[in-house]
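Sanity check record (used in CI):
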Amino acid sequence: MVNIFAILKPVVWLLMKFYGLSPQIVETEPGTKIKIWVPSKTKSANKPNVVFLHGFAGDGIFSWMSQVMAISSTHAVYVPDLLFFGGSYTDKPGRSTAFQAEVMAAALRKVGVKKCTVVGLSYGACVGFKMAKLDPELVEFIVASDTIIELNESFVRVVLDHYGFDNFVEFLMPKTADGLIRFLTICNHGPVNLPQFAAKDFLREFYNNRKEKAELAEAWVIPDNEVKPISLSQKVHLVWGDDDKIFNSNVAERTKMQLGGHTTLHYIEDGGHAVQMEKPDLYNAELKKVLSSRIINSRED
Ligand SMILES: *[C@@H]1O[C@H](CO)[C@@H](O)[C@H](O)[C@H]1NC(C)=O
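Expected output for AB hydrolase-1 domain-containing protein:
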């Protein structure tokens, strides 16, 4: 049986090539390899850099394809796979979001990015916040969606109890086609129309490195008594599905409050957790608007 997601790979490759992007493998240190889609030199010249960080499913380019098409004429777009997703891997023991952030920052510097806006979803936005803290020179601005600053134990327990799961790894990493469809239904506002065979192919294509991904999931959750307040020097714009069934609007408002005064929040109507995939037109319009307002503001600075 041929995997449909494997068949799609060359199609994605050609499509992204049309938008000026091609994949590179960057070694940040021996044993750590990051797959990152980078813009061609002619495409990226004199354009502001935007880096997309995906959530805890799929890979970079699969998650952000529509956004690449929407903004690559005005921005130099970089789309890495986070460690243990897609084509990125390390033999180092680090599994925390801070470790992901450190490695992503190193990979971006290797491909010549000195300053950028980070656009992140869910787990990827958590990595983005850590990157902003770790490397304020590199990260100028953050657009974060459907995320949380620190994922604490008691919050995870509430989500797991609500959906009837024993542990977080089981919730995030379905093993069967039905399990995946159920997970995607939780991530969507609307119904999920994925046939069984496609769900099986998706599991085979995107749920590699299961052991390491389970470790990432466990490292994402912080014990309640270790949660620390965060303060970022960068401005953050939050774009949120108004029907996110994991990180709901209470979490959105709380995140806005925690990040402080200059943080802004925009809801996408009828958007679920995977908002950039479910509502690409609304999401992209908002992304373009906020990115272009940044250019105007930085000219005024
Ligand atoms: C855990 O996170 C939730 C959602 O952001 C929040 O309401 C709650 O106060 C947090 N608990 C602790 C102990 O930090």
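The radius of gyration is 18 Å. If this sentence no longer matches the regenerated tokens, the check is flagged for review.
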